[in-house]
Amino acid sequence: MSSYQEATARQRIAGMLDAGSFDEFLPPQMRITSPHLPQLDAPVSFDDGVAVGRGSIDGRKVFIAAQEGAFMGGAVGEVHGAKLVGMLRRAVDASLNEKVDAVLLLLETGGVRLHEANAGLIAVSEVMRAVLDTRAAGIPVIALVGGSNGCFGGVGIVARCTNGVVISEESRLAMSGPEVIETAGGVEEFDARDRALVWRVTGGKHRYLLGDAQAIVADDIQSFRVAALQLADAARGSGTGLTLEALEAEQRMLGSRLERFGGLDDPLEIWEELGVAEPQSVPLLEIDAFRELAARHREGAAS
Asked: Which end of the chain is more exposed for a tag (fewer CB within 10 A), N or C?
């Protein structure tokens, strides 16, 4: 299986890690399932939709989690979130005795399960805290976003709490999904049936051009693997922890972005403002050609 988008969570893990190195925590045979779903006559999964554990990449020690988009769209519930938190905490504990090179979060989710609303929301907040604690312990945390469900809701925030995001053109990253925006603001605000618009707003190319993703790759597992290690090395070199200076710089960047792009209605207009001569051509570009364009026009890049 070479396509990241078409692979299952465990196929992605197998493709990312050295053969035979995956040590899974709470595997399906332990049957740790959601206590909430049976009460609603909803199906359960014996891993609650996420695989977590540790392994190696080219001999380097990593902890890894992969959400299964085929189970409830990868949505987060109490057990699902607890497994993510537990994996992150084990990475921190392990780092006291040995070098942990990175934590990789293979994210594919629509957000929190409505079936477990409050428990899911609490779980996501605990994941955020655990990500920041892991970074503070000197371990780079990298998010990989390449599944067909994208990465939405609170986990979209989790992705941006990491040291870096690897994304593919085929995937999407945002806080609120298109249907949520349409429900809240009406079709005049956002037409969720306009798939081209959806991908322009939330897709990998737009996220990379704005700097919300630090790497964009082709849809294959090996490309995600290479980019994740590169971002982990870069984070370790510059410092993994979150600092006040970094937060202040991020706030200034967001203020500048709002001032520059706040009056624009479509990413096509934003790309034009970034200096792209033919913004309508961006969705059609192959990945290498797009990277060449982005090197000149990505927000913050030298023109």
From this structure: C
